[in-house]
Design goal:
80% helix, mainly alpha, globular, single chain, Growth Hormone, Chain: A
Length: 394
Amino acid sequence: MLNSKDPRAARPLRGTLLLLATIAGVTVANIYYNQPLLDTFRRSFPEQASWVGVVPTVTQLGFAIGMLLLAPLGDRFDRRKLMLGQIVAMCVALIVAATAPNLSVLIATSLVIGIIGHIPQQALPFAAELASPSERGQAVGTVMSGLFLGILLARTMAGVVAEYFGWRSVFGASVIALLLLAVLILARLPKSHPSSTLPYIRLLGSLWRLLVDLRELRQATLTGAALFASFSTFWSVLAYLLAGAPFHYGPQAAGLFGLVGAAGALIAPVAGRWADRRGTHVVISGAVGLVMLSYVILAFSGTSVAGLIIGVIVLDVGVQAGQIANQSRIYGLNPDARSRINTIYMTAYFLGGALGSAAATVAWAHFGWMGVCIAGIGFAAIAGWSHRRGSVAL
């Protein structure tokens, strides 16, 4: 563990955290490139157009599967080597996606991309390992700022590239970015120190015991999953909203909304400091309130770009603040099992995201934009109920 209060350690710690933030942002983007591309997929594969909405759903389901089966290895092996292996596998999957001859292949490859794509979930426990307990929230917030920027700017990058070069070029550009990142990891990232010698099967089996033993982990997991479901509800159908009347915008416009949301990523380090100083429960309560407020704004902004921009900023700030506070809490529960604790939390988190994407697709098809907003508020209400129940118990 590095103590950033020691001047000799402060600079290496900051540099390593910034590198971890870069790793998180560049790699997580692969999970979200497909969201602003849905309308272009539909035009490329018109005979399978009704299945286009499955692409982001299976990607997030794949992420949950990868989190459950692979992410616990971070407690057993050097996280640096794990990241490099996943980057190589991701490059292969992206090449297949870029050359997909039909939607079925793209859907299958999207599942694989999701399974491999939990690289940021090795970076986050690594950051918690490096930081002192009093600064864990700020360290997690720094890496999370990179993660959120990757999530949000992925849509911008994908939209712009698809507008001018086609959607296949998006996946090709990501391969180049990942190869450059691998070189940086080899040159600059230190090795991590495994905290467990458990064999793989027992490592997986310990997940259930951690969930049973740690009540605060269970509460944080449900709260986080519901918040991310609310987040995914909006982003999964934004491309559809902007493609129709009165906007008639292409994928570039949908992607540019990521720039709006990226402004909210600046809250990440601040939220981490708040969590360190004022406690995580206060931050999470405020986060839930912001998410609910965002959907009230969005519900009345279905034909207003300005209203959508305001709603996106409020939504992203709320979700990011809640996520950072939640993860700061859980990383302190058992220092020897941070990767496994993160596995439990993030598996549920992305299952929540997949549920939000699926709910948004159904709500959009049957009830339109207002139905989507009601679904988003509903997920936020579940997060609020879970958090309040946990706060009373604690």
